[in-house]
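<goal> How does this chain fold?
<body> The protein record starts here
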Amino acid sequence: MQVAALPWREAGNGIEVMLITSRDTGRWVLPKGWPEAREPLSEAAAREAAEEAGLHGNISHLEAGRYFYAKVLASGEEVPCEVLVYPLHVDKVADRWKEKHSRTRRWVNSSEAVRMVNEPDLCQIIAYFCADPHRFS
């Protein structure tokens, strides 16, 4: 099981979310990864957002949803991987971060995000969340 942050902010045109590119295929994804031993899941999601996208803010302890994707292992084998998604209300965007040279990041509105993301279940989570992000506060 992995955890993901759903980074968001309020903008003039409504809610925006930040997507990043994956390092391997360049597809648009949320910052995600594996929780460390005894690390609270929401805190692991916040850590991934900082490492992969240079984002900091208030992480919700309420899960926005979960989805599955096909994780490709080093052996080339594909295994189903469950991802728990936690909203991160972003208040600081770093100019420098751990994976800056490996990824591109972009703020987009919910309809753009849904067009850019390949996982249908994640698209549903993003659309549902953006309709009323404060329900996860």
